[in-house]
Amino acid sequence: MSITISERAAKRIQEIRQEQNISSDVPIRVSVLSGGCSGLTYDLDFDSKKEITKEDNEFEDQGVKVVVDMRSFLYLAGTNLDYTDGLTGQGFHFHNPNAVRSCSCGESFSL
Predict the structure, then answer these.
(1) For the chain (length 111 residues), average pLDDT per consecutive 10?
(2) CATH value at residue 92
(3) pTM, two decimal places
(4) Which of 4, 9, 66, 72 has the fewest Cβ atoms within 10 Å of its own Cβ atom?
(5) 69-98 tens-digit pLDDT
(6) Residue 54: left (phi > 0), alpha (psi -120 to 50), or beta?
(7) Can you tell me the distance from the alpha carbon of 88 to that of 99, in angstroms, rounded to the nearest whole number?
(8) Structural domain tally of the chain?
């Protein structure tokens, strides 16, 4: 299993890269942190300063390189990263098949 990226998310990531002048070889780091109203929260950022270690899992989908630490991958295996810009909210959304409960804002979850 891996983490997949929708076409919309890949397009938005490319737009952000251009806006912030971030090279296409800088991967996206996805991680899970303790916190949020459901216990765990997602973190998504460009990994321009951290070094990729042997404990990291690396994926590529839709031309986007993704790095996930082993602990976070246990929570995120099979997740799809999407992007929406509709009336109900703009931003990246994680469709995580492992989450059994999430908060109303969709930014935190529990297993």
Answers:
(1) 92 96 93 76 86 89 94 92 83 85 54 57
(2) 2.60.300.12
(3) 0.82
(4) 4
(5) 999 999 899 999 999 887 767 889 888 888
(6) alpha
(7) 21
(8) 1
Q: Which residue range forms the structural domain that includes residue 69? A: 4-110
Q: Which long-range contacts (CB under 8 A, 24 or more apart) does 101-104 make?
A: 101/38, 102/38, 103/36, 103/37, 103/38
CA distances to 54, 83, 100 from 92, in Å: 27, 4, 19
DSSP string of 3-66? -EE-HHHHHHHHHHHHHHT--TTSPEEEEEEE-STTSEEEEEEE-SSSPP-TTEEEEEETTEEE
